[in-house]
Amino acid sequence: MPYSKSDRRFLRALGLHIRQLRESKGWSQDEFAYRCGLHRTYVGGIERGERNVALLNLHRIASALGLSLAELFAHDEEPQK
């Protein structure tokens, strides 16, 4: 089933937020993916808002960033331009 506009907007905003957090650590996508235990192309898809990320993978991402899941989701859902 295709995603709604709202779903796509949420996934893009989450992906952008994750990218900003990764970049604030000075990590490449390769390094971040390694720290998360995920594939680099999967991480790229997350950051572009193309992936509907599983909860366990969100937990891995949050842990790699030193955050709780609640802290990971504490962001504005609208992407900043």
In the residues, how many domains can be counted?
1
Order of helices and strands: HHHHH
Euclidean distance between termini CA atoms: 29 Å
Average residue pLDDT: 92
Q: So how many helices? A: 5
- CATH fold node name: 434 Repressor (Amino-terminal Domain)
Architecture, according to CATH? Answer: Orthogonal Bundle
Computed structural class: mainly alpha
- Kindly state the number of beta strands: 0
Which class in CATH terms?
Mainly Alpha
Supply the CATH superfamily name.
Answer: lambda repressor-like DNA-binding domains
The percent of residues in helical segments reads: 55-70%
> What value does the Rg take, in angstroms?
12 Å
Shape: globular
Largest beta-sheet details? none
Proportion of residues in extended strands: under 5%
Low-confidence stretches: none
If you had to describe this structure to a student in words, what would you say it looks like?
It is a single chain. The protein is mainly alpha-helical. It has a single domain, classed as lambda repressor-like DNA-binding domains (434 Repressor (Amino-terminal Domain), Orthogonal Bundle). Helices cover 64% and strands 0% of the residues. The chain is built from five helices and no strands. The protein has helices at 5-24, 29-36, 40-47, 55-65, 69-73.
Descriptors:
single chain; mainly alpha; 434 Repressor (Amino-terminal Domain); globular
Outline the secondary-structure elements:
Elements (H helix, E strand, L loop, with lengths): L4 H20 L4 H8 L3 H8 L7 H11 L3 H5 L8
